[in-house]
Amino acid sequence: MATTTRTTDRGTAYFPRLAAERLDIALCRASAAVARAADAHAAGEGLGVGQHLVLQMLDAVGPCSQQTLSEELRIDRSVMVGICDDLERAGHVRRERNPATGAPTPSPSPTQAAGGTPRPKP
Questions:
Q1: Residue 106, class by beta-carbon neighbours within 10 Å (0-12 exposed, 13-18 middle, 19+ buried)?
Q2: Under a CB-based contact definition with an 8 Å cutoff, are residues 45 and 120 in contact?
Q3: Is the four-CA dihedral 41, 81, 88, 63 of positive or negative sign?
Q4: Per-residue pLDDT for the chain (122 aa), expressed as one digit of tens each?
Q5: What is the pTM of this model?
Q6: Which residue in 5, 6, 15, 24 is deepest, having the highest Cβ count within 10 Å?
Q7: What's the CA gap between 92 and 55, in Å, rounded?
Q8: Cβ neighbours of 51 (radius 10 Å)
Q9: Buried-state track 5-31, b at ≥16 Cβ within 10 A, e below 16
Q10: Strand boundaries in the chain, DSSP class E
Q11: CB-CB contact of 111 with 91 (8 Å)
Q12: What is the pLDDT of residue 71?
C-alpha cells in the first residue's frame, strides 16, 4: 500500500510536519517502513517474517525451546506454535521433545543445517 502525503491550503506537507513535531508519529511511521522492508525481504526467501526470525535464531544459538524462541523474539506463544508447525511442515526444522521437560525443542533439520534448504541471510 503506497503512502500518500496530503498538503494543507498553505502547501505544507502535513505528515512530515506532524512527524517532526511528534516523536510518536515519527516512530510509528518508521516502524511501518521497517515492517514493510522485513516482509519484502522474508517473502523473497519464501518465508514470513516470524519464520525468518526463528530460523535466524536457531542458526545463531542452536536448538532451543519454543518458549525460549517466543520470549527472546517477543512472539506470542500460540503464534510461535504455528510458526514452528509451518517450518516443520516445510522441512526447515524438526522438533524433538526435551527429555527433561517434555517441551518441544525446534532445531534446524539435517538438510537445513547442510544448506539443502533456504537459510535466512543476516
A1: buried
A2: yes
A3: positive
A4: 455 555 445 556 777 787 788 888 888 888 888 888 888 888 887 888 899 899 999 999 999 999 999 999 999 999 999 999 999 998 999 988 888 887 778 887 765 544 444 444 44
A5: 0.62
A6: 15
A7: 8
A8: 21
A9: eeeeeeeeeeeeeebeeeeeeeeeeee
A10: 93-97, 104-108
A11: yes
A12: 95
Encode burial over 64-96: b for 16+ CB neighbours within 10 A, e otherwise: bbbebbbeeeebeeeebeebbebbeeeebbbbe
The residue count for the chain = 122
Backbone angles phi, psi at 22, to 5 degrees: -125, 110
